[in-house]
Amino acid sequence: MRFILKDYQFAASAQITSALKRATKGVLEDPEEVWAITLSAPTGAGKTVIATSVIETVFDGNDQFGPDDRATILWVTDDPALNEQTKRNMNLASSTLGPNRFETIDSGFDQPTFDPGHIYFLNIQKLARSNPLARSNTDGRTNSIWQTIANTIEINGPNFYVVIDEAHRGMKQESDRQTIISRIINGQPGINPPVPIVWGISATPERFEKAMAGRFPKSFDVPIEDVRASGLLKDKIVLDNPTGNQIGGDTTFIRAGVAQTVAFERAWESYATTQNEPPVLPVMVLQVGNTPSDAEMTEYLDAVFDSWDGLTDKNVVNTFGEHVAISAGSHTIGYRAPQDIQDDTDIRVVLCKDAISTGWDCPRAEVMVSLRTLNDYTAIAQLIGRMVRTPLARRITTDQTLNDVHCYLPSFNKDQVAAIVARFAEGKNDEPPVEIISNPVTLEHNTKLPDEVFDLLGDLPTYVVPGRVYRTQIARLHTLATLLAGDHIVEDALTQARIHPLGVLKTRRQAMEADGSFKAALDKIRALRIERSYLLLAADSMDDLPAEVQYDLDRDDNNIEDLFRVAKRKLPEGLALNYWNSIFDAHDDDYDPTEAKAETAVLALNKDVVEAVESAAEKLVQQWLKKYQPSIAKLSDVKKALYEPVKRETRTPELTELILPSSKTTADVQQMWELHVLANDEGKYPSPHKGWELRVLEREFKDDDLVAWYRNPTGTSAALRIPWRLGQLDKSMYPDFIMFHQTDEGIRPSIIDPHGQFLRDAPGKLRGLSDYAEAHGGTFARIDAVVEIDKTLVALNMKSEVVREAVRKVTDDTLDELYEKHGGDYS
């Protein structure tokens, strides 16, 4: 892959690949077996990137899975533009897939079977009965597409994977066109048999999964919270609408949209200059009604051009369904297909009617002005959903206002905007998991606070926790070494990354040779243990036959080569090959290469040896990240972002850094607070609080020594993250408040975390906070876990060893007893 996958993308890729391998094995063992594998991921999660990684791994293998030389992919959609977009995105993402492995099925396609190692793209319109593709013996055609599918299933069924993209759209059973996918999947009597293995991809897979009843199901869901934390989607959608029932405002809002787009352009230019990156050129989307008059279009375009200096007709395009240029007043606005907009930086304004769905992938679209009414609420929500991808495929950690989308809705009132906000919050349709706010306010560093507060906050110990699935530590070390060398931080990092694990292998071999285990393992690898049994066909007695015969059969070179391929997966990034070469360095030139491969396999197939190498690689990564963090911190944002996946590929929680944004957008609310580290231009922080949180804040503000405070966010690099265990998984908790007080030792931070003892995660999070306090208690004046008992706030002092010892033994049934025995009156 050319892209470094996000944690959840890597996990989903590994899970889907494993499921496909199991399905292949199942169909090989029982040809009547049929499988349905589902990938459910929210809009914006990068479903195509995940699919590309899976297909690349299936075709070519990686350090976890071997290649499948017989694998064939049929990629099915209901729209040719979607196929073209998928091919383009796959080509960008993959280092091994490309045009030579892509095949578009058109009316001229005529093959008896699909070829292994290729992805065939089919849109279901081509399978209408009137299309020559669906018929044989016409126009010189030898094979219909149905015959090709049937032949491929017969010859290569266990390795033939049919992928249904946007799977929910083809399963409605409402018309002939929409049942074509069902005919592919379930077969047709006398024409084509059922496809053994089907993989459906959708943000809303319920309809697909229902249609797959009767198949062996494997379903994989990408968690919404992981997509939110990934940085692939904008953080917030800001909705502006007129208050009350005011009339008019179309062109006023158009001018406001232009002003916001220009403001985005200036902010991106400033960011790009600071980071030495190419600037992002934001796009404004102007959504009009289905039948705007010439006079209306002229009025709209005049408002755009009059308020945007230097804009010309070539900077404005339409995506109307008529696919033709339009003329309005003195302007001629050409048509452009949605999929072509992103890469044409001359385009700055896009005119559309309904939602631009198929083929629309334009992360530069950061401002929308919709002139639609409440009746078009679905079209508006769908269009918003196409505008939430981040232009740089990562969150901007400094100026967080660049993580926003602005939408202007002149025909909507407050209640109607609330309906859109509720639709996104519920996530019941196909909306991306992005927060929507109205009445926005920009927050920046509070200039009324001492600079020391910001330094203290940035230095607080915060953690990154392991993902659900991670690469080997050997691969992690190689990636980090490549980055450090490329950024001229450690010039010989790649050499060190090669020599260090190689030394571990040599040391482990010496130990195994000393205790005789190496020779025993080598003898075992050289031979196959064979068991001979007898089946009596005549009437003679079995008494004359031995009960069992076992003997050894020397493995031939091909089977040793098979073991060496496994060794290269167990010891990736060329480590197995490097060790194999090192054997020749220690012997004469005529040393048997197959013998050297067997010796390498002995080490690679030994779990203890592999774990020793993994541990050594992990330790070196940790040392490098700690030692060279100051140098990494000086890099541009785009380069620093490349180190983040390496940090997250830990096997145990590891320390990282907290990055406070210079600015961010939030909703303006009536409840305002002083002394927050981020504030508006009046030094106030809008933040609604109630219940325990409100009482905690009121209690802290009674302290005359309070200097500042920070409402700890969730799931970003701006958060203080504390690891805790849930079963076998490491999770992150985010204590609510960090308070800064003036003490005899100067300004000191404190953690105050109100969290209900009645919640299921309470014991685990309490233990996590306790472990954190034991490791980092000296950094804080207080670390208090606060609950309410009989309407009184009670706090556990996590800096107390007695309290921490009691927390280690706590269970769900003893939480109240813990607070009653060891808690103090917080209020």
From TrEMBL:
All copies of domain Helicase/UvrB N-terminal, residue ranges: 4-207
Pfam family of the protein (one): ResIII
Gene3D superfamilies in alphabetical order: P-loop containing nucleotide triphosphate hydrolases
Superkingdom of origin: Bacteria
SUPFAM superfamilies attached to this UniProt entry: P-loop containing nucleoside triphosphate hydrolases
InterPro entries per record: Helicase/UvrB_N, Helicase_Restrict-Modif_Enz, P-loop_NTPase
Protein name: Helicase/UvrB N-terminal domain-containing protein
Native organism: Nocardioides furvisabuli
